[in-house]
Every structure is written in structure tokens, then in C-alpha cells.
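Input (GTPase HflX):
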Amino acid sequence: MTRVRRRATIVDAATPAVRGILPVCGALSERQTAALTDKDPMTSPTHLPQDDQRLPEGLRADALMEAEAAWSPGSDADRDGDQFDREDRAALRRVAGLSTELEDITEVEYRQLRLERVVLVGVWTSGTARDAGNSLAELAALAETAGAVVLDGVVQRRDKPDPATYIGSGKALELRDIVVESAADTVVCDGELSPGQLIHLEDVVKVKVVDRTALILDIFAQHAKSREGKAQVALAQMQYMLPRLRGWGQSLSRQMGGGGSGSAGGGMATRGPGETKIETDRRRIREKMAKLRREIAAMKTGRDVKRQERKRHHVPSVAIAGYTNAGKSSLLNRLTGAGVLVENALFATLDPTVRRAETPSGRLYTLADTVGFVRHLPHHLVEAFRSTMEEVGDADLILHVVDGSHPAPEEQLVSVREVIRDVDATSVPEIVVINKADIAEPDVLRRLLRMEPRAIAVSASTGDGVEELKALIDVELPRPQVEIEAEVPYTKGALVSRVHTEGEVLSEAHTAAGTLLKALVHEELAAELRRYAPAARAD
Ligand SMILES: Nc1nc2c(ncn2[C@@H]2O[C@H](COP(=O)(O)OP(=O)(O)OP(=O)(O)O)[C@@H](O)[C@H]2O)c(=O)[nH]1
Ligand SMILES: [Mg+2]
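Output:
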């Protein structure tokens, strides 16, 4: 296993102002869970046991043992000699107090622990050691963005992740030592793990294990501001959680626990015959998901209407796309003077922002900021954020922003283009904007400029290159096609303004009858202007 030094991460190491107790990593908070299952874990009446759902005696014992082995801090004393860690584990178990029984902490509840001191682990299947290091550096940036302190990071060279424990089982034990040594309380894996892998690895390292998907979901949950953004994140979280609800312990303990009259440990299936707690939870989650989907669809309609309106007014649209933290929002601010949240953190922007901007020749266009892309964006999120990305698919021009100071800008370009392909936006013309030219290596800038035919180096911070970029946007934006000549009466001043903003004025003179215009305009405006054609008036 290769130990990766923590070094320059993508974000400033200073980022995570300790945010104290963090919400679930990738899953739902207690309140969300309660809302989902429509019961308050603190107050819900204890479930009555139902005899017909009890397991036969022998099975119960086995199940008990399994659950015990997995949960009880005492039961693994042989592997768990460290007092510090034991305290940590006691703290982990504390969450049980939120629920009705100790044993049946669902994985969801389990995950709502603090994510504070983390060790990163990656499986390095292809590429160079440098690639593996970059990948882990990005994971570190993600973890820091979520508010965690990264203590250490390790990668293992393997053909593919171990189906049981992600890294090999021997390495998992080594990882366990690192966790103990650094007093970490969480392990973050650089990939999407199956529910089984998460459980097995947790079993070995004895601290919470989360994967990259969960981490990204968590960041998204922290950052989403608008109603639509929040709904999309919630939907993605549920999607992620659904298969993981099956979690060990959960269904078993729910089924086996029915002994008592409801005190801790007794909470057992409360549902009617044939439906276990987990099935009910799952059904309720599915119902919530369906509801969210309907709500999102309705919100999307609202946005579509606005977009169509812009289209109807023939205002060309430019979408800013790019890897997270590339400087998209900074560029939007530079181009429009708008105050959009700029933060040295990943996924600072999660809600689409649309602003008006003007080309040097005075043509109006709209400029849309978009959510940042990241390698292996969890699939649910690509789905959930498709609507945001649609802004990109519908644009007349994409400004593809790439961070020129990043260690692997080419990879960023590739991953963003994958998403652009995903949302069927490949036919939209693209300008590659190589940002952060002020701190990028000149060699890297030259390399990128050579590689990309339609590229420009800028600095959103200093403003270098921004005027050139504006001029380039002017050239690349679609132009109105119809050439007209009209003499618009002075009483129709609004029409003249429209020609200025929606079309391109070639010449303008003032006659006794009105404003004499020669201009390029779109068909609809041309139709209105034909009424004032000088020839027509002469007739
Ligand atoms: N040195 C330098 N830093 C820049 C430049 N442009 C942006 N930054 C910094 O890069 C960080 C990210 O900028 P943002 O504009 O928030 O990036 P973004 O692409 O919108 O990021 P997300 O919304 O998180 O995906 C901030 O700390 C900016 O100050 C630049 O040209 N030069
Ligand atoms: Mg942004």
C-alpha cells in the first residue's frame, strides 16, 4: 500500500472552518429519516411484537450473534485493543439513543455521525502513481469541502477493487492500524462501494466507512440553496440510500427483536403480517421519491417557460460549464459584474444562475453559471442535475472553463466533455477558457492553447484576457440573418431599441420621417420592420 502524503489539495487547506457536528455523510438526517418514515424516532410508540414474525429460536440466536459481533464493542476485544478507539466507538453507538433500540440502528442513522477526522483510501487500478495521487488529492479536497479534517491517505495497487472489502483484506487490517494511529473516526473510499463492501470494510476498520458518492451527496446537501436544488439533492440521496437500507443488522434485528414489550432491544416489526420494517421504510421512501419527482418536474416546467421566453425574445444564451472550482462563478462575475458566490470550495455553486450580459458591440446575451462537474459524478447526481445541465444543452455557446493551474487540466476537460455528451450538448459550439492564467505554469498554458483550437487564456481574478474573451463571445454568438432597411417613425422608439438589442445595426440615420435603419435581425423582427420599409412608404 502506498502512503500518499497530504500535499497541495485543490482547495486551500485552510478551508474547513470546523463545522462541528456534520450531518449524515450521504444519507439522511434524523429529521429527514423521521419525515421519510413518518414517525419521530424520539416519540414513536414502541413497536408491539408480532409472534408470527418471530424467527425460530435457533435462527434468532444466530442472528443475534451476528448482530452482536458486528456491533458490540466488547465482542471484538481481540481485535480492538485501543482504548481511544473504543471511546470513539462508544460515541458512534451513541446515535442509538436517537432511535428506539440500540441494535437496530439503520445504516442511515449510523451514517449521520460526525465526519471529522478522516483517512482516505483508494484503489489504484490504472495510470501512474501521480494519477493515483491526484485522485486522492481530489478526494481530500472533497472531504475538506464537506468539513472533514484529512489525516492520512493510502492507495492500494490492484487490478480491481476487492469485491468484499474494496481493498484487500490484508490491507484492510493495515488500514485499521493507520486509523488507530491517527485516531481517525471515518474512512473515506475513493469510489462507489457496494453496500456489502461498506459493511465488510467497516467490520475490519471499526470506524465509519463512507464512499465518494456519499461524500459528494453530502456536499451537495450542504450547498443546495434553492427549492429545486434541495429537492434534487434529496432525491439523489434517497436513491443512494434505498439499496443500502437493506443493511446488515437492520432487518435481522428488527425481525428477531420482538421479545420484550418495547424497551430497548425489543423493537420489532410493527407492520402487518408479511411486511417488515425495512419494507415499509422502503415503500415510504419510494413514495417520497415519486412525490419529489413530481415536484421537480413542476419546477422544471417553470424554468422551461422562462427559457422559452428568452428564446422567443431571441436573446442568445451562453452557458458556463467546467470542472468544480475552475472559476466559473468568478468568470460570470467578471463578465457581468454580478455578485455570485465565489468560494474556494468544491461545488460552491449548485443552483443555476442566469445573468444578462452584453457583447462589446452591444448585443445582449444571457450567461448561465452551472454546477461544477467532477470526475465520476455519481450517476444519480447526473440524473438529478440533468435539468441544470439542460441549460448547457440549450445554449448557443458553451464557455468551457478549465483551471490552468490544476495538476491535470486535460483530465478535467475530458470529464467535463463526458457530461456534455451525456446531456446531448455536443453540437453546441464551445470556447475553452483556460482560467487562473495568473497562477498557471506558462508551459501548461501553451500546451493547452496548442491542443485546443478554440481556446483563450484568462484570469478571472486579474481580468487579464477577459476583454479578448468578450470579443470572442461576440464573434461566436449566432448572428441574426435577415438584412433589412426600415424607416421607423419616431413614435415607435421601442422598435428601434429592439433592433439594437436583438439585432445588429449596420447603419442608422435620422430623417424627417423617422429613424432610418439598416440592420441584421431575426425573422420575427424583420416581419415587423417590413411595414416601415422605405420602398413601401414611397408607394
Ligand atoms: N488565482 C486565481 N484564482 C481564481 C481565478 N478564478 C477563480 N479563482 C479562485 O478559484 C476558486 C473557485 O472559484 P469559483 O468561481 O467559485 O469556481 P467555480 O468553478 O464556480 O466553483 P464551483 O461553483 O464550486 O464548482 C476561488 O477561490 C476563486 O477565488 C483566477 O483567475 N486566478
Ligand atoms: Mg461556482
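The chain is about 45% helix and 15% strand.
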